[in-house]
Write a structure and sequence with these properties.
It is a single chain. With 83 residues, the chain is mainly alpha-helical. The chain is built from five helices and no strands. Helix 1 crosses helix 3, helix 1 packs parallel to helix 4 and helix 2 packs across helix 3.
């Protein structure tokens, strides 16, 4: 399982982009707003795999350039790695 703190960070980062608010995150994930609020406030410290996956998926869409840079660095390291 992914740490609840990481999920909380990702939700807060999604909201920081101002592309989504808490309601928008809940609507995207098709869950009640209370589920998202419980994650952000730390009430739910054990998010399900399905919830975690959806949050990561949403984060990759709002922070696409960040993930592009990560993939680029991995590719660069792979090219220089000697087997």
């Amino acid at each position: 399982m992914i740490d609840a703190g990481v999920i909380r960070f990702l939700i807060n980062d999604i909201i920081a982009t101002e592309e989504y608010n808490l309601e928008g995150v809940a609507n995207y994930m098709r869950v009640p707003l209370d589920v998202i609020v419980d994650l952000v406030t730390g009430i739910n410290i054990n998010p399900s795999l399905a919830i975690s996956t959806k949050i990561i998926e949403l984060h990759t869409t709002v922070r696409k350039p960040v993930y592009g840079e990560i993939i680029k660095k991995i590719a660069e390291n792979q090219a220089t790695y000697k087997y």
